[in-house]
Amino acid sequence: MTATLWRLLAQVATERGLRWLGVGIWVLLALGLAACLDNGADSPGDPVLQDGSRLPGFAEVAFEIETAAGDVSAYCALLADTEELRAQGMIGQSDFAGYDGMVFRYQADSTGQYHMRGVPIPLAIAWFAGDGTFVSSAEMDACPEATGACAERRYGAAGPFRTALEAPAGGLSVLGIGPGSRISVGGSCAGGG
Fold this sequence. Notes:
Blueprint: H1 2-12, H2 15-40, E1 59-66, E2 72-80, H3 83-88, E3 101-110, E4 123-128, E5 134-140, H4 149-152, E6 161-168, H5 171-175, E7 182-185
Parallel strand pairs: 2-3
Antiparallel strand pairs: 1-2, 1-7, 3-6, 4-5, 4-6
């Protein structure tokens, strides 16, 4: 076996052998590039420039929570700041796509209520006044159905609010949210959420 290998290497080491080796390398590179372009040209079928978040249609936004004890932590959330996005919320979503929650931002004080119709996972929600102070919170049961008792249930804040934050069930305490806490929303997420 070693004698055959030495003969092959001796043939390649000639000027003619090196030329053929170079041609072979270029042919392999060209075939590899063509295969990459062919596979990549089919995906995605309808490419769309994303808005930066991992959940199509929603932007991402940074938010900070100041706890009642004065500790401040920064997080990243999906942003629902239009009537259409607020109405969509977490409907049909089984997780937050790696974000800490979803921020619902309003231009003026609101007393609107939230529902869980079509949301397959339980959520927690906290409402904050225009100055960022905590108003109230609730744990919301999953309701994957579009109709029925759970679809009709409404969750409301204890008073007017400008910002609401939905997080995974039980997640408000993890974020430091409760009586005496404050939220500030704005800016881009460091590290992308």
